[in-house]
């Protein structure tokens, strides 16, 4: 019998586990409502595998590892190669990553405002210029510096976004924070402790079909469907339109027949228009609407309370 991953001696460090990136669509502010809906099988240890096919900032995963010591297998997937690179570095080379990030922090904080701006754009340019030479499929020492740059850019850019253009280039402008925390060492070490047990995969969400069974809990947090005519931003690599949403719903139904326990979150298009897209797509499952707050938007007027949808195939 496979032994649980998280043992008693890990508990103190894992209590600090939290996202290391500020991520558009991150679930940190929804965690209290999501916790109320976590399946009882996690507590009772009848669910021993956890899968997250759209990992992003990982708020739900980092929350679960604090309270679910019965997990035996963890699979974290994403199609964004920069994210997968970052998490694999945290998993494998945490000390070297911390030292690289410490160097960036000491240099940046020692500069005046204009010099900080110049340093940011110089580093952003170097990040983008070498992207074509990065082998995202083969781990190397070059990954550590790139992961450190990803974290630096996320902590010092405008509004804490991670956004790339169609060429895969990071294009968020400089943020004017007086004293940003670029290196959060306790959080990085806690993330390392959590991630070192996981299998981190790069690729399409459909790959999880082979991993799930009746002992599996799957949490889906796909790129959100725009909830207005102008809300088209996604930090996700590649397009994720309605056809992809339908393909995801087909996977959800297929894994339901295999006995997997599943929870999915998405935007609610009925915030602004009469559009039962998800109600039709997930008919037959439990669909709830909950209040959420948009925390990342270039315009403050666009932040605030909106409804989101949760879809689950189990009772709470």
Describe the structure.
- The protein has 316 residues and is an alpha/beta fold.
- The protein contains 11 helices and 7 strands.
- The protein has a 7-stranded mixed beta sheet with strand order 3-2-1-4-5-7-6, sandwiched between helices.
- The longest helix has 17 residues, at 113-129.
- The radius of gyration is 20 Å and the shape is globular.
Structure described in brief:
The chain is α/β, with parallel strands linked by helices and 316 residues long. The chain has helices spanning 11-14, 31-35, 40-44, 59-64, 81-92, 94-109, 113-129, 142-156, 185-195, 242-257, 277-281, and strands at 49-52, 73-78, 199-202, 216-220, 261-267, 286-294, 304-312.
Which helices and strands appear, and what pairs or packs with what?
Blueprint (H helix, E strand, L loop, with lengths): L10 H4 L16 H5 L4 H5 L4 E4 L6 H6 L8 E6 L2 H12 L1 H16 L3 H17 L12 H15 L28 H11 L3 E4 L13 E5 L21 H16 L3 E7 L9 H5 L4 E9 L9 E9 L4
Parallel strand pairs: 1-2, 1-4, 2-3, 4-5
Antiparallel strand pairs: 5-7, 6-7
Helix pairs in contact: 5-8, 5-9, 6-8, 7-8
